[in-house]
UniProtKB/TrEMBL annotation:
This is Tyr recombinase domain-containing protein. Residues 81-93 have a biased composition (Polar residues). GO terms for molecular function: DNA binding. One of its GO terms (biological process) is DNA recombination. It comes from the Eukaryota. Gene3D superfamilies: 1.10.150.130, Intergrase catalytic core. It comes from Antrodiella citrinella. The keyword Ion transport does not apply.
């Protein structure tokens, strides 16, 4: 059916820290930074004089129902500003100009922004070592870390921390940086920003010696102080019933609908991230076509028993720059991914070098973008059931995971299909007791493989 061939992008940033409006000015509290650092007499001298006497914004008042009665004894700080999530904004606090921090794309800041005490100039070999180290992180991670490093430098500018004390940074400065953001940003964002500073130290070969207990506590505290407006709603899974209903509303003889449907079911049964099978923009695909999945990356594989499996090789993924494969087999009913893929190939006829879901739209050949696909599917879902169109791109990965688990596929097999290196996928089990039902009966149905199927219990 398929030829047996299996062989990021960055936006110029605004050189500013996207913080809540007047973050370092209007939300100054009576809490001094010295109170946030260690209470021992020997720790306070580690902070620059300006930072020792600076006042910090307090954390926003949290809903007591979310924190529980134990939070009643805490002070009630002012409400958090409405702007919580990072964004490139003209109103953001700009950095103090410095030759150490030239304007560059966010993903390049880790390597191009220099600590003041790094030996210079570096030789060609040393520069290449730094460049090689940046490849330890995905492009999207480098962009996030670029935002985090921007936040750190803005913090240091505000509190007049000398360049020589910004790196290598000490526990007091970094815990104060985290505490400054706590209550205004999601804990996960703050953690990413903290590890951005760590990555910056690693790349420039600077020591990273911190009081880990203090850092762990302040990061955990920032997670607990995540404002309600920054808590992402749980993403709903796409179900087989919803997919079947959507299929009935699509015109599979039309190019775009054929591509959308094929992508949806391949993503679902392959437990793929939607961004792995689609493009962000047409321009980015044209700039780096080999980093996206193409027609030539689809192959048909057969095991010793004659069972056929379709494999799609994804050249670059979130966790692997050398690529990964997703797999799926023929399914019964309307949602069969192999039938959908064959129909797409017959209608749109993508060449080997074209994007896998290349199609003709308004007489132009275009790859399938994530936004276009989701918009089309949500319109169809809303037409069938107004309450069924709340899914996101990740809903297909969640839905496929749940479907396999509900069929009784062992946990470790699903973990392999989804390409998880950890047990992070277990988060999908929390609202679905029926997945665990066979394992918790008085006489379990799966006694013979309970030990290999169930993931390890966390201590």
């Amino acid at each position: 059916m398929y030829p047996a061939q299996a062989t990021q992008q960055m936006t110029p940033p605004v050189e500013s820290f996207p913080i809540p409006p007047d973050f370092f000015h209007d939300f100054l509290s009576q809490t001094h930074l010295s109170e946030l650092s260690s209470s021992t007499p020997t720790s306070k001298h580690l902070l620059p004089a300006a930072l020792r006497t600076a006042e910090l914004p307090v954390t926003p008042k949290l809903d007591a129902s979310r924190r529980g009665s134990s939070s009643a004894h805490r002070s009630n700080p002012p409400t958090a500003p409405t702007t919580i999530r990072p964004s490139n904004s003209a109103s953001a606090a700009t950095l103090t100009p410095s030759i150490l921090r030239p304007k560059c794309a966010a993903a390049k800041r880790l390597i191009m922004w220099k600590p003041s005490n790094v030996k210079a100039p570096l030789g060609e070999v040393e520069e290449r070592v730094k460049w090689v180290m940046t490849n330890a992180w995905a492009d999207s991670t480098l962009e996030t870390y670029g935002a985090g490093l921007l936040a750190y430098q803005a913090f240091c500018d505000k509190y007049q921390i000398p360049e020589a004390e910004r790196a290598p940074a000490n526990t007091d400065i970094l815990s104060s940086f985290v505490a400054t953001l706590a209550g205004f940003y999601a804990g996960s964002t703050i953690r990413n920003y903290f590890f951005a500073v760590r990555a910056w130290h690693i790349i420039h070969r600077l020591p990273w010696t911190l009081d880990q207990d203090t850092i762990d506590a302040v990061l955990k505290g920032s997670q607990a102080l995540t404002p309600p407006s920054s808590i992402r709603a749980r993403r709903s899974p796409v179900t087989l019933e919803a997919l079947s209903n959507i299929q009935r509303t699509l015109d599979l003889s039309q190019g775009r609908d054929a591509a959308v449907w094929a992508c949806a079911v391949c993503c679902y049964y392959g437990i793929a991230r939607l961004g792995e099978l689609t493009v962000k923009t047409i321009a980015k695909f044209k700039a780096k076509p080999t980093q996206y999945v193409r027609r030539q990356n689809v192959s048909l594989q057969v095991d010793r028993g004659g069972r056929k499996v379709t494999a799609i090789f994804i050249p670059v993924t979130k966790v692997s720059k050398s690529g990964e494969e997703i797999y799926f087999a023929q399914q019964d009913g309307l949602t069969d991914p192999e039938s959908a893929l064959r129909n797409h190939f017959n209608i749109n006829k993508p060449s080997d070098a074209e994007h896998l879901f290349m199609h003709t739209f308004k007489k132009s050949r275009v790859p399938l973008s994530k936004d276009i696909m989701l918009k089309r599917l949500k319109v169809c879902a809303h037409f069938v059931d107004p309450t069924a169109s709340s899914f996101t791109g990740h809903s297909f990965r969640i839905g496929g995971t749940l479907e396999y688990l509900l069929r009784g596929v062992p946990f470790e097999v699903v973990k392999t299909l989804g390409r998880w290196s950890s047990n992070a996928f277990q988060i999908y089990l929390r609202k679905h007791a029926q997945i665990l039902a066979p394992y918790i009966q008085n006489h379990p149905d799966y006694n013979t493989f309970l030990q290999i199927a169930m993931p390890a219990v966390r201590a």
